[in-house]
């Protein structure tokens, strides 16, 4: 009886570790999609990676970008697309929340910046909740 119980615990622990690993991988994938879209000035796609509230706030915040003259917008896009982001860690905060740490490598001579995203599970989908 004890052997069966120990085996059950071992299988359950392995299942939980695998589930947590998949969750953090999915959250990291959303973070990568968000960062790629955001820094390539594809704000509509970036907003689709966010919670509804954050996506709406992002679109309000970038209204000025869309109001710029096309040549100025292209300059902003050139500078922004030169930014490289690197995810440095993904840590589960809870079963429905993940903290993603990442570096922002700006064009020289700017130093590397360190930042975070909070990814939450909303109705079974991982979404950026804070950046």
Key phrases:
Nuclear Transport Factor 2, Chain: A, 4-stranded antiparallel sheet, 131 residues, alpha+beta, disordered N terminus, 4 strands
- For the biggest β-sheet, the strand order reads 1-2-3-4
CATH topology: Nuclear Transport Factor 2, Chain: A
From the alpha carbons, calculate the radius of gyration and give it in angstroms. 19 Å
Order of helices and strands: HHHHHEEEE
Q: Count of helical segments?
A: 5
Q: Please, what is the average pLDDT?
A: 85
How many E strands?
Answer: 4
Question: What is the CATH class designation?
Answer: Alpha Beta
| Global morphology | flat
Characterize the biggest β-sheet: 4 strands, antiparallel
Percent strand: 25-35%
Give the N-to-C terminal Cα separation: 50 Å
| Helix vs. strand class | alpha+beta
Tell me the count of domains: 1
Please name the CATH architecture. Roll
Report the uncertain regions. 1-21
Share of helix among residues? 40-55%
Explain how this protein is built.
The structure is a single chain. The chain is α+β, with helices and mostly antiparallel strands and 131 residues long. 15% of the residues are buried. The chain contains five helices and four strands. It has one domain (2-130): Roll (Nuclear Transport Factor 2, Chain: A), CATH 3.10.450.50. A hairpin with a 2-residue loop joins strand 1 (84-94) and strand 2.
